[in-house]
Write a structure and sequence with these properties.
The complex is a heterodimer of chains A (319) and B (77). Chain A is built from seven helices and 19 strands. In chain A, strand 15 and strand 16 form a beta hairpin. In chain A, helix 4 runs parallel beside helix 5. Chain A is elongated. The model of chain A has no long low-confidence stretch (mean pLDDT 92). Helices cover 25% and strands 29% of the residues of chain A. With 77 residues, chain B is an alpha+beta fold. Helix content of chain B is 40%, strand content 22%. Chain B is built from three helices and four strands. Chain B has a four-stranded mixed β-sheet with strand order 2-1-3-4, sandwiched between helices. The model of chain B has no long low-confidence stretch (mean pLDDT 92). The chains are: A alpha/beta (319), B alpha+beta (77). The interface between A and B is medium-sized, with 24 and 18 residues.
């Protein structure tokens, strides 16, 4: 199949791009492995203008429906490779299918970072977790520790504190980097949440099950902190492995580099959402959706000028 | 039709994805909320060896997480 546009990623950036591309009457396919990206597992979203306290999953469902209503196709699958031949992109999927695309929008988002400590991988889901909204409720009446001082971490802590007996936040810096409203909610939890500033996790201890962490400095006279569960929310890195072989330019932090119109250095290939760092670390559904819309517009403008490159490619290769 | 049981929590997004998948494919399933059903929680740990949700049982086969490919294969979809 030849598409005018293939959008890789079905989070806010990809789905927004699909809506706009559909309205531009581009034959569009949105492919994503994890529907809705992080938004779908983020829990309640209170800061998306126009949607009052909506569950992230529901918000992504509406975005998907909007895109489909204007003709965008969606598929749950993973892209395994992208090749470029004569101005046409060949996009291969894990299911074995290969489609051609005149333009591509990369909205692959990010992957959560690990601490990189021994035992971390072995004990994942055995007391070590990366999604407080998903697994926090499993620790009702128990003690947990959350590593990380960003907004996502604070939001997760606020949720977990509704279930857990006690939540320890292990923060490398000397302050939390959260929206003030989320910080206020944390403070309102009182003694249930204890923040350990300027502290890091040095060891993750456990054999068949997580048992405790060893801290970089003592807390209550000991560097051992025994809790029932450990949640790691220390940021993310961009998923760029698909585009690096194409020669897409990355910035100093490894994010896809694109101009304000979401154009990369590869003609016909655009980026949107958290796989870029356009706003210096400020990554929200609203920024992703905006970037998706801009990327779709740029793809449309490119397509109008360059035409149906894949059909040209087929003619020149005699396929 | 295989017997399908899913262990979930109320805030688990991947659990919701799995439910949508089952609904779209007319698959009946039983749901056990492991935040309130402590026996189900122990059952899940015993069967899967871990605490992450969802855990989906298709007859005796254990699927950890929403693994659409594996589920499709086990359910013959």
């Amino acid at each position: 199949m030849i598409y005018d546009l293939v959008i890789i990623g079905s989070g806010a950036a990809g789905l927004s791009a699909g809506l706009y591309a559909g309205r531009y009457r581009m034959k569009t396919l949105i492919i994503g492995k994890d529907f809705g990206g992080y938004t779908s597992i983020a829990g309640p979203i209170d800061n998306y203008p126009g949607a009052k306290s909506v569950d992230g999953f529901d918000l992504m469902q509406v975005m998907k429906e909007q895109a489909k209503e204007v003709g965008a196709e969606t598929v749950d699958d993973a892209v395994t490779s992208i090749q470029r031949e004569g101005g046409c992109f060949l996009v291969s999927f894990a299911s074995g299918v290969t489609h051609q695309a005149s333009t591509i929008i990369v909205g692959t988002g990010t992957e959560h970072k690990r601490l990189g400590l021994p035992n971390e991988i072995e004990l994942t889901s055995k007391g070590v977790h990366y999604c407080v909204t998903c697994d926090g409720p499993l620790y009702g009446g128990k003690k947990i520790a959350v590593v990380g001082g960003g907004d996502a971490s604070v939001k997760g802590v606020n949720l977990a504190a509704e279930y857990a007996e006690k939540v320890f936040m292990i923060v490398r810096g000397n302050k939390l980097r959260a929206e003030p409203i989320n910080y206020e909610r944390l403070l309102a939890m009182g003694d249930k949440i204890e923040v350990l500033y300027e502290t890091e996790v040095k060891e993750i201890v456990g054999t068949s099950r997580f048992e405790k962490v060893v801290l970089s400095k003592p807390f209550n006279g000991s560097t051992d902190l025994a809790v029932d569960g450990l949640f790691i929310e220390v940021g993310a890195f961009p998923r760029t492995d698909l585009v690096v072989p194409l020669g897409v330019e990355l910035d100093a932090k490894g994010y896809i580099k694109a101009d304000p119109l979401m154009r990369t250095n590869i003609p016909g290939l655009f980026a949107a959402g958290d796989v870029m760092d356009l706003f210096s670390g400020f990554k929200q559904d609203i920024t992703a959706a905006c970037m998706g819309a801009v990327a779709a517009t740029s793809a449309y403008e490119y397509y109008k000028v360059h035409g149906d490159l894949c059909k040209v490619h087929l003619k020149t290769t005699g396929e | 039709m295989p017997t399908v049981t899913m262990y979930t929590t109320p805030t688990c997004g991947y659990c919701r994805l799995a439910k949508v998948f089952f609904k779209e494919n007319n698959v009946e399933f039983a749901e056990k909320d492991v935040t309130v059903d402590l026996a189900a929680r122990e059952e899940m740990i015993a069967k899967s060896g871990q605490l992450g949700v969802p855990v989906i049982m298709v007859d005796d086969a254990v699927v950890i997480g929403f693994d659409k490919g594996k589920l499709s294969q086990l359910l013959g979809i």
